[in-house]
Amino acid sequence: MEFKHTSVLLDETIENLNIRPDGVYMDGTLGGAGHSKEIAKRLGPDGHLIGIDQDGEAIITAKERLADYGDRITVVRDNYQNFKSILDELNILQVDGILLDLGVSSYQLDNADRGFTYRVDAPLDMRMDDRQTKTAKDIVNGYTEQELFHILKEYGEERFAKSIAYHIVKYREKKEIETTEELNDIIRGSIPAKVRNAQGHPSKQTFQAIRIELNHELEVLTNSIDGMIDCLKPGGRLCIITFHSLEDRIVKNAFRKNENPCICPPNFPVCTCGRKSKGKVITRKPILPTEEEMKANSRSKSAKLRVFEKGMNI
């Protein structure tokens, strides 16, 4: 199956990266190289792009699509949380721009074998990196009822988390849960019919929660933002595209804290904590897709782009 993915907020992201022909840029979620190809087009002979992705199929596709740009491109199979060691290996201290396009690619959703989607019956997998041994099946069958409730409530913001967790545990007393359709059936049976019929697919939030837990998505994001800002050159920018409220909240709060880290009481006339701003938030409100983009790509509807710029004197 061909790796297909329509890059969301493409023009807006490229514009906000302020790409210089001789600059060094990092795409921490390379995917099918949609954003990266547009960056590469704008680089001159002295420019460099580092593309990182943990998905083996994405790496193969990206290398093919970026082959024309030769040694201006370095492609690395890894999780973007390891960006600092990757840059160290390349003897790169700072970069001019960093991009993160979070969430699941269209390819991962459309490829039923990956087990990300609730719309097709498939083995419960959901791994973004198939070198990892733990799968969604292990979570569904191995977590306690309380642990399941916690991730469904916290990561899926699921109203019926308690009922779904209870019914998962009851079902697996009889047999192991192996497929997406089995899990779908359990979820349907856990939600009142009048609610189930009035909203979107009843499994959406549960599948999201399990995927986030399995791939440590929020933890990785939270632990990476400050370090990425530190790795920017003065005037460099960090652009992050999110697809749900949990990610967006993490990004918004992290950007705000890096812009104004002072913890002194508001009534103090002078800052005494010594914490210095690292730069400024460019997007006071997130950049959203246009009506045209949302019509052309329904998966862009929940996308939000936030941008942070490193201070010039840091």
UniProtKB/TrEMBL annotation:
<dbReference type="GO" id="GO:0005737">
    <property type="term" value="C:cytoplasm"/>
</dbReference>
<dbReference type="GO" id="GO:0070475">
    <property type="term" value="P:rRNA base methylation"/>
</dbReference>
<feature type="binding site">
    <location>
        <begin position="33"/>
        <end position="35"/>
    </location>
    <ligand>
        <name>S-adenosyl-L-methionine</name>
    </ligand>
</feature>
<keyword id="KW-0949">S-adenosyl-L-methionine</keyword>
<comment type="similarity">
    <text>Belongs to the methyltransferase superfamily. RsmH family.</text>
</comment>
<dbReference type="InterPro" id="IPR023397">
    <property type="entry name" value="SAM-dep_MeTrfase_MraW_recog"/>
</dbReference>
<dbReference type="GO" id="GO:0071424">
    <property type="term" value="F:rRNA (cytosine-N4-)-methyltransferase activity"/>
</dbReference>
<keyword id="KW-0808">Transferase</keyword>
<keyword id="KW-0698">rRNA processing</keyword>
<feature type="binding site">
    <location>
        <position position="108"/>
    </location>
    <ligand>
        <name>S-adenosyl-L-methionine</name>
    </ligand>
</feature>
<dbReference type="InterPro" id="IPR002903">
    <property type="entry name" value="RsmH"/>
</dbReference>
<keyword id="KW-0489">Methyltransferase</keyword>
<dbReference type="InterPro" id="IPR029063">
    <property type="entry name" value="SAM-dependent_MTases_sf"/>
</dbReference>
<feature type="binding site">
    <location>
        <position position="101"/>
    </location>
    <ligand>
        <name>S-adenosyl-L-methionine</name>
    </ligand>
</feature>
<feature type="binding site">
    <location>
        <position position="53"/>
    </location>
    <ligand>
        <name>S-adenosyl-L-methionine</name>
    </ligand>
</feature>
<keyword id="KW-0963">Cytoplasm</keyword>
<protein>
    <recommendedName>
        <fullName>Ribosomal RNA small subunit methyltransferase H</fullName>
        <ecNumber>2.1.1.199</ecNumber>
    </recommendedName>
</protein>
<dbReference type="Pfam" id="PF01795">
    <property type="entry name" value="Methyltransf_5"/>
</dbReference>
<comment type="function">
    <text>Specifically methylates the N4 position of cytidine in position 1402 (C1402) of 16S rRNA.</text>
</comment>
<feature type="binding site">
    <location>
        <position position="80"/>
    </location>
    <ligand>
        <name>S-adenosyl-L-methionine</name>
    </ligand>
</feature>
